[in-house]
Amino acid sequence: MEIRDPLQTPPPCSRAQYRDDLALPSFPIETPCFVILETAVLHNLEKTAKAAGGIRRLMPHIKTHRAQWLVELLVREGVTAFKAATPAEMQMAAAGGAQHLVWAYPTVNTAAISRVADIARRHPNVQFEALVDAKRGFRAWRDELERQPASNIKLRVDLDPGLGRTGVPLNHEALELAHAMMVEGLFSGWHCYDGHIKGANRPERVKDIERLIEEVRSLLSQARRKGLPAGLIAGGSYSFDVWPADVAQWVAPGSWTYSSAQHQADLSNLGWRVGAYVLATVLSTRQGTATLDAGTKAISPDIPLKERFQGPGPIRMMKEEHVVIETDELDIGQQVALVPRHTCTAAYLYNRALVQCVDGSWEFRGQLGAER
Ligand SMILES: Cc1ncc(COP(=O)(O)O)c(C=O)c1O
Q1: Number of domains forming the structure of the chain
Q2: Would you give the distance in Å from CA 114 to the centre of its chain?
Q3: Alpha carbon nearest to ligand 1 atom 7, residue
Q4: 235 CB less than 6 Å from ligand 1?
Q5: How much distance in Å is there from the Cα of 159 to the middle of ligand 1?
Q6: What pLDDT shows up at residue 133?
Q7: What is the domain-level CATH number for residue 150?
Q8: Which residue in 17, 113, 205, 236 has the fewest CB atoms around it within 10 Å?
Q9: What is the DSSP string of 113-182?
Q10: Does any domain span residue 29?
């Protein structure tokens, strides 16, 4: 067995990286660290806008990055509308210059509703929308707006396209709820997130999405006949490029921003690049394994342990602050990029990120982290 001198620390990146397309900082940096490559994000925006049929049809979900500087960047590039998951994201996007903001979370929690309504009142020039999937949620919004009106807030009906998470079925129930909201002057359209349609097989995926599109098209025709607006927000990263503009006015992918190890395997046709990773340092090596300082508190805890990231070898074990990787290729002190399988749940673990700017310089920029 090779004995390594622990006092002879090699400089970071002294050996060939397993992915040489990802820029690594060449100066000392505390790890684990969330790293964003701004050029890759801009590249992904260009690809996504093109696949969406134009930047004006894009309504990016900001839950992926939770970063005001990225909202500002997207606004500068021509994005006008955003989706958000939490009140803090709504506040951040409004402050970042969004013109149209959808709270894509049909809550009945009156405290959260009041908080978002207050944000809307503080930004009267921003068009706010929220989702409703039951009479209970509609009543919560109506009561809040009766208590303190805000003419820039409208409500959409959330449809369940088979994801089985939130949303009303695509039938008379949806039409009845929309009608009740319309009578009160609060209905503005529809929302449909098809996150259950995934996988690397594009032709199969397209078939499933097209089946759903026809179902939604039929519901919206019925809505039109009843005098209800038929504007729809649909799709995520696996489907947005399939939804036609005559059915979905907006498409709302989110995780395209940084892409992910999963996207790189499943969605290569979209041409996205890895736009973010977790930088980790090799702390210890033994025959066949290396231990890095990126444990369960550093990267994508929602994903099955062995699949949390693409790195320099298979994941053998993870603890809160450590991950053990099967490899003989790493030296103590070396820094490596771990590409999350689900980058949204890596980004939120950090309240700042090290950004490689378009001009190649590096700087830290803030993000919401786990704040809700
Ligand atoms: C309601 C909603 N819309 C849009 C998205 C973005 O989808 P994706 O992550 O596939 O880009 C998500 C992601 O979870 C979501 O929950």
Answers
A1: 1
A2: 24
A3: 236
A4: no
A5: 14
A6: 98
A7: 3.20.20.10
A8: 17
A9: HHHHHHHHHH-TTSEEEEEE-SHHHHHHHHHHHHHS--TTEEEEEEE-SS--SS-B-TTHHHHHHHHHHH
A10: no
